[in-house]
């Protein structure tokens, strides 16, 4: 009896590991945000979550660019997103303000609700990827607020409080209700823009690059005001995304309703006009007896 030697572990090319390495960096950044929150270093906690969001936007693009997409990477990315954009923002808010809400018990319920909404939103997003019947235009929209944007929006009042010393912005009731609202929008059916498919006309490229330069200057000089303004602008785009989604949905429904009107009638007329003749059937087609 011959015993086969065990198979050697194959070597993975670097392009298969690079996206996962970026995801692990994002995961570590989200965990570091928790450490900064415990130490009450709020600016660094927010920056750590922002860094995780930037890395999250890169890992998928790097995977597609290097053709290193894998099921393992997709699962790792979902776990990282839940921690960085579900657990970390909720805990940062809890240590900053929500721990005083209802002696901490009510604030903790807000954290649990927000984290649960993030998990449900990620689960729905992952299952929606397997739907082959979605129209092509739906790729320009998300269903609900994506988790990285939800994390940033949940921290909006905390971000503004770093520049504006106001007890109102620090209110646990304000931040608790706001976090619940953002969590509800994440699991809602409200369509939001997906900027992954935005195309820029050639003549508009200089203006876009100029805008990026201005945005970079604002982030370096007035980061907290700029982040708050970006969050407010994103919320404003939801009005336009809803209108655009409804217009495309009605157009698609009208096209689908009009398409089958003539096709069955024509096929029925052809069936009646052409007599049944077994001799006309090919050998590959089944014959009716």
Tell me about this structure.
It is built from ten helices and two strands, in the order H-H-H-H-E-H-H-H-E-H-H-H. The protein has 289 residues and is mainly alpha-helical. Helix 3 runs antiparallel to helix 4. It is globular, with a radius of gyration of 26 Å. The C terminus is likely disordered.
Keywords, please?
289 residues, mainly alpha, two-stranded antiparallel sheet, 10 helices, 2% strand, globular, disordered C terminus
Topology:
Blueprint lengths: L13 H25 L3 H25 L4 H26 L8 H24 L12 E3 L3 H8 L1 H6 L10 H16 L3 E3 L11 H17 L1 H36 L4 H11 L16
Antiparallel strand pairs: 1-2
Could you give a quick summary of the protein structure above?
About 65% of the residues lie in helices and about 0% in strands. It is mainly α and about 290 residues long.
Q: Judging from the principal axes of the Cα atoms, what is the shape?
A: globular
Average of pLDDT = 82
Compute the number of helices: 10
Low-confidence stretches: 263-289
Distance between the termini: 57 Å
Q: Could you give a short account of the major beta sheet?
A: 2 strands, antiparallel
Structural class: mainly alpha
| Content of β-strand | under 5%
Number of strands: 2
The oligomeric state is: single chain
């Amino acid at each position: 009896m011959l015993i086969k030697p065990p198979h050697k572990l194959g070597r993975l090319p670097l392009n298969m590991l690079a996206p996962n390495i970026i995801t692990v960096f994002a995961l570590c950044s989200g965990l570091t945000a928790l450490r900064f929150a415990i130490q009450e270093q709020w600016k660094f906690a927010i920056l750590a979550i922002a860094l995780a969001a930037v890395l999250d936007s890169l890992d998928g693009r790097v995977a597609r660019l290097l053709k290193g997409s894998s099921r393992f990477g997709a699962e790792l990315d979902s776990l990282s997103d839940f921690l960085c954009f579900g657990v970390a923002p909720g805990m940062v808010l809890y240590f900053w303000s929500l721990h005083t809400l209802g002696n901490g018990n009510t604030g903790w319920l807000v954290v649990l609700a927000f984290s649960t909404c993030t998990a449900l939103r990620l689960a729905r997003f992952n299952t929606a990827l397997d739907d082959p019947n979605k129209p092509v235009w739906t790729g320009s929209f998300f269903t609900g607020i994506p988790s990285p944007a939800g994390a940033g929006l949940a921290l909006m009042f905390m971000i503004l409080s770093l520049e504006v010393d106001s007890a109102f912005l620090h209110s646990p009731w304000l931040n608790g209700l706001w976090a619940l609202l953002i969590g509800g929008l994440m699991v809602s059916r409200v369509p939001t823009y997906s900027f992954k498919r935005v195309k820029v006309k050639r003549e508009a490229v200089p203006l876009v690059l100029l805008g990026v330069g201005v945005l970079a200057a604002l982030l370096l000089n007035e980061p907290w005001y700029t982040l708050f303004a970006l969050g407010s602008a994103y919320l404003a785009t939801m009005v336009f995304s809803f209108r655009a989604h409804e217009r495309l949905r009605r157009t698609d429904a009208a096209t689908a309703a009009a398409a089958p009107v003539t096709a069955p009638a024509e096929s029925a007329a052809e069936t009646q006009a052409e007599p049944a003749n077994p001799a006309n059937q090919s050998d590959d087609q089944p014959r009716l007896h």
